[in-house]
Amino acid sequence: MGLLKAAGVVYKPVEELDLGPDSNELYVEANIKAPRMSGFLAKMVAWILESMMFGTLALYILKRVNRIHKFISNATLGEPPMFVPSHPFVDLNEQQVIEIHPDASPAEKVQQAMDCLPLTLESSPDTSKHSCFRRWTIADYSRAYRSGEITPLKVAERFIDAVRESSRRPLPMFFFINYDAEDILRQATESTFRYERGAPISVLDGIPIAVKDEIDCYPYPTTVLVLIGGTKWLHKVRPCTGDACCVARLRSCGAILVGKTNMHELGVTPSGTNPHYGAPRNPYDPSKISGGSSSGSAAIVSAGLCPAALGVDGGGSVRMPASLSGVIGFKPTFGRIPHSGVLPLNWTVGMVGILAGTLEDAFIVYAAISGQLPSDESTTLPPKVHFPLLNSTNSISNIKLARYGAWFNDCNEEVRLCCSEALQLLCERYSWKGVIQKTVEVTIPEIEVMRSAHYVTISCECNTSLSSYLEKYRSELGWDARVVVDIYGAFDSNEYIKAQKLRYRHMQIHNKIFTKADVIVTPTTGMTAYPISKAALKTGELDYVNGARILQYQIAGNFLGLPAVTVPVGYDKAGLPIGLQFIGKPWSEPTLMHIAFAMQITENQRFSMIYLIRSETSEDTRILGFNMAYLSPDGIALSN
Ligand SMILES: *[C@@H]1O[C@H](CO)[C@@H](O)[C@H](O)[C@H]1NC(C)=O
Ligand SMILES: *[C@@H]1O[C@H](CO)[C@@H](O)[C@H](O)[C@H]1NC(C)=O
Ligand SMILES: *[C@@H]1O[C@H](CO)[C@@H](O)[C@H](O)[C@H]1NC(C)=O
Ligand SMILES: *[C@@H]1O[C@H](CO)[C@@H](O)[C@H](O)[C@H]1NC(C)=O
User: Fold this and answer.
1) Active-site residue flag, 317
2) Minimum-distance ligand 1 atom for the alpha carbon of 63
3) Predicted confidence (pLDDT) per residue in 20-51, tens digit
4) Which of 28, 307, 314, 415 has the fewest CB atoms within 10 Å, counting from its CB?
C-alpha cells in the first residue's frame, strides 16, 4: 500500500498548462477506496474511526489511499488561497436579456419573468397533444385558478390526499419529513379568497411549492415534530424562528408552502436515503433512489405534486437528484440567492437551488427568490439581475460550448450516448440563427484534484458548524452520517489552506476555459439511479463508489460558485432519466436558461409515476383527479 510514501504533487503554474484539446495533461479517473457500507459494517467503521487507538491510523490510511496526501497535504503550489467563491460582478453583455430593477419586489419580478415567456396566460396548452407526458406547470395552475376551473383550496385538498396515498403505497414515497395539512389548507383558503376577489398577488399565487428540510420555513419548527436538516436532533439546538429569505419571498408572491421535504441526513451523500425518515423513491422506478441530498424535493416535483421545489446544493445536491429523477435542476451563481435562514452546514460551497418540471417554472421561481439582500451588499458593485427573453424569436448567436472529451465520456455507456446525441441535437436544431453553433474541445486538468479539495473544504466546514453539538448528539446520528461526520473531522489546517489554494487555482483554470467558450457542457451524473437496498432503509448507507460516479460532474458549481443547470435529455434502457449539464460563467444565468430552454425536449417524454391535479370538468377525461398514471417501461400510461 506504500503506507509511508506519498510524495505530493508539485503543481506547475496555470500559465504553463495547456488547456487545448491535444494537451498532455492526463485525465485522472475517480478511484475511491471505500466499501459500500450499511448496517453492521457502518457501525463497525464508526467504532473504529471513533476509537482512540485505531481512529487516527484508519483516517490516515483512508486519506493516503484516496490520494489526499498526494493531491493536497503534501502538495506544493504557488497560488494564494481563495476562501469564498464570490465573484465581482461583470456585465457579460448577454444577448436577448432585459435588466431587472434592483428594487423590484419578488411579485414584480415574477411578472417580469412571465412577460419574458413565449406562452402567455391567455393561451391554453395544446390539448390535442395530451398523449405527450406533461406535468402541470405554474401557468397551467394559474390559468385554471383564474378561469375558476379549480381553486387553490381544491388543489390543496387533493395534494394532501395524494401525499397520504403516497405514504400508504407498498413502496411508500416518503416525500416529506414534515408537512402540516392544516397549515396548507389555511394558505390555500387565503389564496382562494384572493382569486375570488380577482386579486391574486402573482402567477405564483396558490402554487404548491415544497422546501428542503434544511431551509427554514415557518411554522414547521414550532410544532412538536420539528426537524431540521434531516436529523433527529438538530432542532433541539437550533430553533427556527421564521422563514428563510427565499421562502419569505415565495410566500410574498402567494405561493403555498407545502412542507419540508426529505433529504439525506445532513446532506452527507448523494443517495438521499434517510434512515430516520425513509427513502424518497424515484417516481420513474420506486425501487431506485431519487438522488440526494435534495431527494424529497426531486421526487415530489417528478411525481407532479409540485411544479417546483427548493433544494440546497453543496456538492451537486440539487442537480444530481434533479437529473436522476428527470426534472430541471438549477443552481445559480454563489451569492445570487441569499443564504439567510438556510442551515449553515458548509457555507462556502452550499447554496439554494431550484428543482422544477420545466425550465420556465424554474425561471419563475428564480425570479421570485433571486437578488441580494441589502445587508449582503459589499463595497463592490451589486450584481445586476438580467432575465432571458425566452419569448424572443431571435435565438442567441455565437454561443460556444466547451466539451472535455475524456471527462464527458467517463460515464456509463448509455449516459454517454444519450448526452452526446442530445448535444448534437442542440447544435443542429438550434444553430442560433444561422451562426453555426460550435462545440470547442478543451482540456480541464486536475478535475479529480478539485473534487478532493472540495471534499476537504466541505468536511472542515461541516465539522466546524457541527462541532459544538456533536459531543452530545453524535449517538443520535444515523450510522451512515456518523461515519461521514467522523471522516469530516480528519483534516487539519494545512490541508484546509491547501484546498483553498487549489480553489484559487481552479478558478484561474476555469477563467481560462471561459475565454475559449461561454459554457461547459457535461453529463449531469455518470450513471442513472441505482437500487435502494434493504439495509440502507434501516441503517442508512454509504456508497462512496457509486457516490463518486454520481458526483463527478458537479464540483465546479459548488467549489467555484459557478451557475449550472441540468436538463433531462433522455432515458436509459430501464427507463431511468438522464440529464445534461451546462456550467456557466459567474452571473451568466440568462445564457444558461436560454440554452436549457432550447435543450428542453418536449417530445417522447416518458411517464413517471405521477399525480395529476386536474379538475373533474377537464376536457381531458383520461386522467382525473389523483388517479395514478403509472408508467410501464415503454411509457404507456396504465391508469384508467
Ligand atoms: C505526506 O503527508 C503525510 C501527512 O501529512 C505525512 O505523514 C507524510 O510523511 C508525507 N509524505 C511525504 C513524502 O512527505
Ligand atoms: C418579449 O418580452 C419582452 C418583455 O416583456 C417584450 O418587450 C418583447 O416585445 C417580447 N418579444 C416578443 C417577440 O414577443
Ligand atoms: C452542504 O450543505 C448543504 C446545505 O448548506 C447541503 O445541501 C449539502 O448536502 C451539504 N453537503 C455535504 C456534502 O455535506
Ligand atoms: C472537528 O470537530 C471536533 C468536534 O466534534 C473537534 O474536536 C475537532 O477538533 C474538529 N476537527 C478539526 C480538524 O477541526
Assistant:
1) yes
2) 4
3) 999 999 898 887 777 777 777 888 888 888 88
4) 28
Of the candidates 408, 508, 413, the residue with the CA atom closest to the CA atom of residue 27: 408
Q: Which of 290, 293, 295, 615 is the catalytic position? A: 293
Give tens-digit pLDDT for 234-289.
666 667 778 999 999 999 999 999 999 988 777 667 776 777 788 889 999 999 99
Catalytic residue status for 128: no
Q: How far is CA 121 from CA 147, 211, 361, 410, in A?
A: 11, 26, 13, 43
State the Cα angle at 214 between 208 and 220, rounded to 5°.
60
The C-alpha cell that represents 292 in the structure block: 440526494
Distance CA 568, CA 332 (A): 18
φ/ψ of 359, rounded to 5, equals: -65, -40
The three three-digit cell numbers of residue 166, written as one number: 403516497
Q: Which ligand is nearest to the CA of 473?
A: 4
Q: Is 272 in the pocket of ligand 3 (CB under 6 A)?
A: no
Q: If you measure from the C-alpha of residue 489 to the centroid of ligand 4, how many angstroms do you get, rounded to a whole number?
A: 5
Question: CA 215, CA 197: separation in Å to the nearest integer?
Answer: 32
Cα 374 to its chain centre, rounded Å, is: 26
- Ligand nearest to the backbone CA of 100: 2
- Burial bucket for residue 52 (CB in 10 Å: 0-12, 13-18, 19+): exposed
pTM for this one?
A: 0.91
